[in-house]
Design brief:
Elements lengths: L2 E2 L2 E8 L6 E9 L2 H4 L6 E6 L10 E10 L2 E10 L10 E7 L3 E6 L2 E7 L12 E9 L18 E8 L1
Antiparallel strand pairs: 1-10, 2-7, 2-11, 3-4, 3-10, 4-5, 5-6, 7-8, 8-9
Length: 162
């Protein structure tokens, strides 16, 4: 419903958990309908791949783009020091400017990507939000008999500072 180019984005959320659960707070470039993916660019503010205590405690921040007709990505991760991400609300953030994108968990930077190379021009355009909880897939695998349903991702707020 709204697109943004640059700024700080804070999303306070409590995540689901369990094998095969794959929540994401992410953005796609506005050119998605015409350019397609990954040419439009993708910014994953937060992804979690559920399935173990380690997985349920780790957040990933990644960018995806088109590199001369091939999908390219660059990402980093952060594991919380105790518990899992479903135990309480956390703030997942990016700081995005003309030079770089930084990922933060609870206001602590854990990853950074330079977007200055010419091949990353899609990250200098407007993006829109997508929030979802996927079930299954190549990264998390399928749910199993330990996975509890229903699952939910609770989003307390979304703040965009420009």
């Amino acid at each position: 419903k709204k697109s943004f180019q640059y700024g700080r984005i804070d999303i306070r959320a409590a995540l689901p958990k369990g094998q095969g659960i794959w929540p994401a707070l992410w953005m796609l470039g506005d050119s998605f309908a015409t350019a397609g993916w990954p040419r439009c660019g993708e910014i994953d503010i937060m992804e979690m791949v559920g399935g173990s205590t380690v997985n349920d405690a780790t957040t990933y921040g990644t960018i995806h783009w088109d590199n001369d007709g091939e999908h390219a990505n660059y990402g980093g991760s952060k594991r919380i020091s105790s518990g899992i991400l479903a135990d309480e609300f956390h703030v997942f953030s990016i700081i995005w400017n003309t030079q770089k994108i930084q990922w933060l968990l609870d206001d602590v930077v854990f990853h950074e990507a330079s977007i200055t190379p010419a091949g990353l021009s899609e990250f200098h355009e407007s993006f829109f939000f997508i929030f979802n909880v996927a079930v299954g897939g190549t990264w998390p695998g399928s749910p199993d008999n330990t996975t509890i349903f229903p699952q939910r991702m609770a989003v307390d707020y979304v703040r965009v500072f420009q």
